[in-house]
Amino acid sequence: MYRFLVTPRWLGAAALTIAASVIMVMLGNWQLRRYEERSAINDRIDAADSTQAVPLTSILATPAGAGTAGDSPGKSRAWTKVTVTGTYDTTHEIQARGRTVDSDVGFEIVTPLVLTDGTAVLIDRGWVPAPPTGASAAPTVPPAPTGEVTVVGQVHLSESRPAAIEHRDGRLDTRRIAVPHLAREMPYPVYGAYVLLTEQTPAEDTAFTRIPIDHEDAWQNGGYAVQWWMFAGMALIAYGWQARKEAQGAGSPEAAPAKPKLRDRVAEADRKREAARAAALREPVDRVEEADRKAAAEAEARLAAPSGQD
Fold it and tell me: Is the pTM of this model over 0.70?
């Protein structure tokens, strides 16, 4: 019944169905990994206020040379709560323009914190609004505290697509906080990620607004994973359904090809004559016309007969 499955057409369809299903399962697994990765990031964001901060040096690799950035910690350590102690270097302070908080445009102020070993980490001290004169005008920035400072914050990965760096208002001015790009402007090695400040000793100026952290949309990846797995199952079901339909059609008597019948010409001629005779019998009879035909026939017969003698 299912012998047709070993024909080239059905073998090709089976191979294509299996290959497509495997690819869709792999795509679903990849989306599942993205879901797990993003969920872990959200867990670190949510737990930042309740967990103990770990030393920065236990999360970020120590940078090597002056003017260069260390390795990125990767997404698996993004938003980890860390603590670090050092001294602010305000001569290389950075203002990242065009940054939005609660729909207001302003600046994020990033100041290098130099550690005792001579390395530095960029600290995002917070957001300040742009002045009324325009978004490109120099912002009012509270000065960084002098002396030793202890910072607690969350690891922020370097931003992509580096923008041009200018010197404005006594600071480095840029649009993107791209750590490797900014490290070239520094006279010391710089860690490969920066830190969003949440606490500081001595306390940070209240003029700064804390940078909000958006959660990852993990459930979207979870939904995509389920969709890909469903597509894989549907492809296999469709193949099985089509094979069953083919098998049922091949086994039914109606599906067998009809054998051509030999034509009997004599019988066909008899059928035609019989049909003509039946059609003639079904025609209506006109009695007046029939009587006229009979009278005409009788008159013609009398004229044709010889005349008698008196």
Answer: no
